Design the sequence.
């Protein structure tokens, strides 16, 4: 009978792997950390000197192969962690305005993904603004224009696409490449397909970056006109890595109208500008609420704040989406409103936003967003 898969069995397998030029195993040298087991899949990181990271790649592959050979293991993801000592880290740059430290833009050229014409990010400065719902309906709006569209769920800690698109199960592997799941004509990849919904992903940055790279570059996307990346909220490692390494054609910023959300949206927008990713525009989500009983409109979070902010920052305002129960209900059911009612009043704002994004990607200009009121 096969032994139960535990961290100890993983460590035992890794004791057969040594670092280049070393005599002791990577386990005995204390290089292995953060072993995570999830649904017969194993994730771990190996700490290496930053100046030797490239020559350690064969060792990483050997470690993956050693763990893959354990009976019952269905998948392995090993990441190299190369941390600089504190004294060797580069000093942060201060902006000429506030004096607050600013991250350095990335060095080197981003690498395109074969078969994908354009990759765009849908981002927000904070959570809870409806970014993922907007990303899904934007992708469906782009598809309705005749484009071949895929979606990558880059929110490794809180993946939403499986629920929003009504997907479950595990992606298949063919010719050593993951096959994306499909829904409503979209090709989808998400960490939510690999880890159960209730299982927390407790990883540090390097492991997240490794997983994200594999979901992007080791997936058989085929030929796509646009890949829509649903970013995690904020301005952290994922956003910076995608901007530096992938070659984003642009970013769409999602915000609600109130001042507090706009402060964070402004930070997200400025981050993309700093790493030289074009900002395609701002979407004002939950822009207003129309009571289904009395028909009265209420600006629960204010109204027009994102449009005003877009004007101040000199970026296009892509459109306003109402706060409506049907959008919430269809999203919870995994039936996006743009898919099930493509010509309905709630799909129109998303379609208008998609048209402006497609125009921008094609090198055109964006027009003023139509004001669509849902009665």
Sequence:
């Amino acid at each position: 009978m096969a032994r139960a898969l535990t961290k100890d069995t993983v460590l035992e397998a890794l004791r057969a792997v040594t670092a280049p030029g070393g005599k002791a195993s990577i386990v005995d040298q204390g290089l292995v950390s953060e072993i995570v087991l999830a649904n017969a899949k194993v994730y771990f990181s190996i700490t290496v000197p930053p100046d030797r990271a490239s020559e350690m790649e064969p060792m990483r592959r050997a470690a993956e192969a050693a763990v893959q050979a354990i009976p019952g293991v269905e998948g392995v993801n090993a990441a190299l962690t190369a941390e600089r000592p504190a004294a060797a880290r580069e000093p942060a740059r201060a902006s000429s305005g506030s004096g607050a430290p600013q991250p350095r833009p990335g060095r080197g050229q981003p690498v395109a993904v074969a078969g994908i014409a354009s990759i765009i990010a849908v981002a927000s400065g904070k959570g809870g603004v409806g970014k993922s719902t907007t990303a899904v309906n934007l992708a469906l709006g782009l598809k309705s224009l005749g484009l071949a569209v895929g979606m990558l769920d880059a929110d490794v800690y809180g993946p939403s696409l499986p629920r929003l698109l009504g997907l479950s199960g595990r992606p298949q592997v063919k010719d050593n490449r993951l096959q994306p799941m499909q829904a409503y004509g979209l090709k989808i990849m998400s960490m939510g397909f690999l880890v159960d919904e209730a299982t927390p992903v407790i990883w540090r940055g390097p492991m997240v970056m490794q997983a994200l790279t594999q979901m992007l570059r080791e997936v058989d996307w085929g030929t796509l006109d646009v890949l829509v990346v649903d970013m995690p909220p904020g301005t952290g490692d994922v956003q910076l890595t995608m901007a530096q390494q992938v070659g984003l054609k642009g970013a769409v910023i999602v915000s609600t109208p109130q001042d507090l959300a706009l402060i964070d949206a402004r930070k997200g927008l400025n981050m993309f500008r700093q790493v030289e990713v074009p900002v395609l525009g701002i979407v004002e989500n939950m822009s207003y609420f129309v009571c289904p009983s009395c028909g009265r409109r209420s600006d629960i979070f204010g109204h027009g704040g994102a449009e005003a902010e877009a004007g101040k920052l000199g970026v296009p305002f892509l459109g306003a989406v109402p706060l409506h129960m049907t959008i919430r209900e269809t999203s919870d059911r995994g039936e996006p409103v743009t898919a099930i009612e493509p010509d309905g009043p709630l799909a129109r704002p998303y379609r208008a936003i998609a048209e402006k994004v497609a125009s921008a990607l094609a090198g055109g200009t964006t027009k003023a967003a139509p004001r669509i009121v849902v009665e």
In short: The CA atoms of residues 210 and 268 lie 23 Å apart.
